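Schema walk-through. Below, the input block comes first and the output block second. Nothing else is stored per chain. Lengths vary across the set, and this one has 283 residues.
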Amino acid sequence: MRKTSTERSFLCAAFGTVFVVSIMAVGCAAKTNPALDSARAAQMQARQDSDITTYAPAALQESEAALRQAEQVWEDDGDSQEVNHLAYVTERKVDIARTAAQEKKAEAQSKRLSEERERVRLEVRMREAERARQTAAEATERTRRLEAELAELRAKQTERGLVLTLDDVLFEFNKADLKPGAMRNLYPLVTFLQGEPARDLLIEGHTDSIGSDAYNLDLSQHRAEAVRSFLVLNGIDPVRITIRGYGEAYPVTSNDTDAGRQQNRRVEVVILHEGELASRWMR
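--- output ---
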């Protein structure tokens, strides 16, 4: 059916009105609030920040509540002024959450560092305690070993230090040469002295009363020198050793018998106390 010109004019007018209303509706729907958009962006960024979600979840929830309130006001009545205010509050609460997260994270890191330092200190103390136990055990073993060596050497403790007496039988008759067996007997002394590097020695030679004073003095000196030479050849620092020959001046018993004279023919090795000088104890 063909439409009249009047009908066509009416339809065109109606269509135009609908088009205009549609455009207006679209324009209203597209209306936004920049402050609210900014608050939403800030809130989204905060939710994506693992530090904030981990260390400041309560502050983050407060900012979310402020954003929801701003969105509700915008949806209900479009009050830009109130929405702007609430959007501002939202962003400030996001800032507060971020600052709180930074502080809490720093505190957590500081605590971890403190715990790590304490763990390291504890490990150091444990290692030191273990070293102390090992040192004590080594000292105990060293003491045991030295006591065994001293027992083997038959050394005596005196105010001057340890005194080891070498009998006349260790030397050739009327000579200063050490017998081969004497050398074997002196090796424990070498071992002992190597374990006591801070202790000096005083080696004293003695004879009986048979023979002239000059001869006896010379023999006692040479025998002391023989012992010194043996120790030096076996690694004992000569600086540690002082020798003296006293001849018949200091007998330990009477020279009236063969047994007494044999006891008086001797070399005494004085192992001085640590830090003591031989000059203090020479006769």
